[in-house]
Amino acid sequence: MSIVNKFTVRRAEITVAVVLALCSIALMTKSAQNRITWSAEENMGAGFLPFYLSLGMLICTVLTIVKFILKKSPQSKDTSAFIDPEAFKFVSVTLISLIVLVFTIGYLGIYFSLIFFLAFYLRYFSEKSISFITIFSLTTPILTFLFFEWLLKIPLPQGISEPLFYPVYDFMYGKITMPIKMIFIVLTIFLPTALVLLINRFIK
Amino acid sequence: METFGLLLDGVFTSLQWFNLALLIFGCLIGLFVGAMPGLGSVNGVAILIPITFIVPPTAAIIFLAAVYYGAMYGGAISSVMLGIPGASTAVATVFDGRPLAVKGEAMTALTAAAVGSFVGGTVSVILFTLFAPPLAEVALRFNAPETFALMVMAFATFVGLGGDDIPKTIFSILIGLALSTIGLDLITGKPRLIFFNIPGFLHGINFLVLAIGIYGIGEMLWTLEETKGKVQMSKLSVNMKEVGRAFGALKKTLMAMNIGSFLGFFVGILPAAGATPASLMSYGITKQLSKNSKEFGTGVPAGVVAPECANNSASTGSMLPMLTLGIPGSPTTAILLGGMILWGLTPGPLLFTQEPEFVWGLIGSLYIANFFTLVLNIALIPAFLMVLRIPFAILAPVIFVLCVTGGYAPTQSLHDVWLMLLFGFGGYVLRKLDYPVAPAVLSIVLGPLAENALRQSLILSDGSMGIFFDFASKPIAAIIMYIAIVLLIMPAFGPLYRKIFKKTLSKA
Question: Which residue of A lies nearest to B191 if distances are taken between CA atoms?
Fold first, then answer.
């Protein structure tokens, strides 16, 4: 029996309740760094609300634990696996790849990180061809760039790849007329598709 | 008469070419989002809200309301064709929609769903137009104590009517409120809950980080687990004869339309209820009142019309308290309300006097969106079926890209993206253990407003909580507070609502 099967809904219920109780205590401790009292003269201390809200959270988690011990909640009686092994693969790989994605965004920048994330994800979970995956993984970051940086004017993180984008910004904000810019944009969007098709033809 | 003139102005506002283009685009995206299993209006609105920052607030709300509306229509498509609800709001549509599709009458089910949605939407938007101005006028007299009491009532409805485990529901409300206190305290200027002295916490936690985390990342993890990337689609023949036959079958669904439209609207107004329970209740009541109640569940058009009418009607209904009182009636409207604050507006009755173009533009757009969504829905059924064939393994990473960029864009901080990921995973685990997540989203949006209202009230009363219960000086606040208390103790007496809700679910 694998670890995934052994981790039942029952175990998950109590584990999560205990973790949430500990988090509530941590929040109470942190809130208590500010004044948590309240009186008509002094008004409300900065820590008053967060402290009593986390106290409420703690009481709720204790009630959940009590219900668990008394077997009053459906989860406390459920001995089936919290997540089945096949689904666990989907969820865990997705989660790890997302963590790696956000981690690499800080270094490589979002656009290059997205290429690796999409290529990995599609290769791992879909049965699509290498050509499709390549086109998809390259076109999506291009569209993201055009949408955020060009249309919305919101700069996304570029990390060490930032200098590579300087010529692109020069082009975007340069004196080139709009129709020529539009032609270049359309060409850029279809560039990955054209390249992949060309390489495929060359290999054949 | 004045209302009619304002409504006409609103309709013209939404017919301006830019607003109309956004409206049609929003309807299309909504239909698409609704049709995808696992994605609903709340996911679409949460993921798309960051991209509305570049357009004026009126255009932004018209776009997002169209997404909300379209998703209510679209949810039925996957309920019928895949047997998987496109969104939780379309769960009840599966009960009779799927058997119809299995019998080879998928077109009847889809047409019934579209027409039902149209009728529900139209009735509810008329009710909305009639109720909104007088309610806003009453709400204009509200001060801080009444506002705070209303917010307490909104939270209490989750406990009284939510139908979930009580300690878990209260925990969800409290964690949302606690998260909303992170950052600088506006009164004392002191930093609160700055964990590990990370500067990212100083600007607080944007509600979008929690909303995209829970409804973007968390929902996708949930859907990936449920479907494991595989779907099974019914066959569909689309021709004019089929559509004509489907319209003919609708003659027997008038009762379902009436029940769905009116019940949906009033259930939608309640903060804890929203479109999902409205559609389930509508299905249950129509079934109980129908002469052919035994045929329900085997594939009758009335079983599709009742929930579809109700979920569209409820979606409009949930906008009523959002616009008039500043209290959202559903998780989607909670996100829309947060959006209004980001766009620089003050949600609540003042909108009717200070931003009439925004309010009436939204109301007018609901009429127009209703019509366009019906036409687009029926005309584009073959296109949506193609979309439904896209494997989840391809759709999921695209949504993750939208979540990551959407989480980063509002504050341009990677800290928020990390938090979003954490909330996504946390929301997924908590949801699996039956912790309701909607109250947390509602309370992180309402948290800062509730805190302000509470503090102002206490300054007015020299620190006495009695201000909320004093019939002599603040009768409205006291009445609302006592209603909230009744709602809080309601679960102890096994309310009728929960009985109907559970009975419907177990029978289906």
Answer: A46
CB contact under 8 A, A98 and B195: no
**Closest residue of chain A to B448, computed from CA coordinates:** A49
For residue B376, tell me if it sits in a domain.
yes
Spatial separation of the C-alpha atoms in residues B282 and B276, rounded to whole Å: 10
Q: What share of chain A is helix, strand, coil (3-state, %, to 5)?
A: 75, 5, 20
Cβ contacts (< 8 Å) between B212 and chain A: which residues?
none
Cβ distance of B434 and A75 shorter than 8 Å: yes
Q: Hey, what amino acid is at B451?
A: E
- pLDDT at residue B272, rounded to an integer: 60
Residues B110 and B248: their CA atoms lie apart, in Å, by 13
Question: Side chain identity at B259, as an amino acid letter?
Answer: I
Phi, psi of A44 (to 5 degrees): -90, 130
- Alpha helices, H only, B103-204: 106-139, 144-161, 166-180
Task: State the Rg of chain A over Cα.
Answer: 26
Contact state of A157 with B393 under an 8 Å Cβ cutoff: no
Q: What is the pLDDT along chain A (204 residues), one digit of tens a residue?
A: 577 778 899 999 999 999 999 999 999 999 998 888 877 667 788 889 999 999 999 999 999 999 999 988 888 888 899 998 888 988 999 999 999 999 999 899 999 999 999 999 999 988 888 999 999 999 999 999 988 888 777 888 988 988 998 888 888 888 778 788 888 888 888 888 888 888 888 877
Cα of A184 to nearest chain B Cα, Å: 24
* B377 is a domain residue: yes
pLDDT average, residue stretch B85-97: 79
B395 close to A (CB below 8 A): no
Residues 6+ away with beta carbon under 8 Å from A184: A171
Overall domain count for chain B: 1
Three-state SS for A46? coil
> Which of 152-211 (B) contact A at CB < 8 A?
165, 167-168, 170-171, 174-175, 177-178, 181-182, 185, 187-188, 190, 192-193, 195
Q: How far is B114 from chain A (nearest CA, A)?
A: 33
Q: Give CA–CA dist B457/B147, Å, rounded.
A: 9
Q: What is the 8-class DSSP label of residue A82?
A: S
Residue A118: its H or E element: helix A110-125
Contacts of B393 in chain A (CB under 8 A): 121-122, 125-126
* CB-closest option in B188, B195, B429 to A46: B188
Domain that holds residue B416: 2-229+241-507
Which of B368, B393, B474 is closest to B223 using CA atoms?
B393
Of residues A46, A49, A155, nearest to B190 (C-beta): A46
Looking at chain A, which residue has its C-alpha nearest residue B422?
A99
Band the pLDDT of B174: cuts 50, 70, 90.
very high
Q: Which residue in chain B has the smallest CA separation from A51? A: B178
Dist CA B116 CA B394 (whole Å): 32
Tokens of A98: 């997302």
Residue B9 touches chain A, beta carbons under 8 Å? no
A156: chain B residues, CB-CB within 8 Å:
405, 408-409
SS3 content of chain B, % helix, strand, coil (to 5): 80, 0, 20
- Could you tell me if residue B47 is inside a domain? yes
- Mean pLDDT, to the nearest integer, of B436-453? 87
Size of interface A-B (CB pairs under 8 A): 163
Residue B446: inside a domain: yes
Token digits for B66? Answer: 């169209």
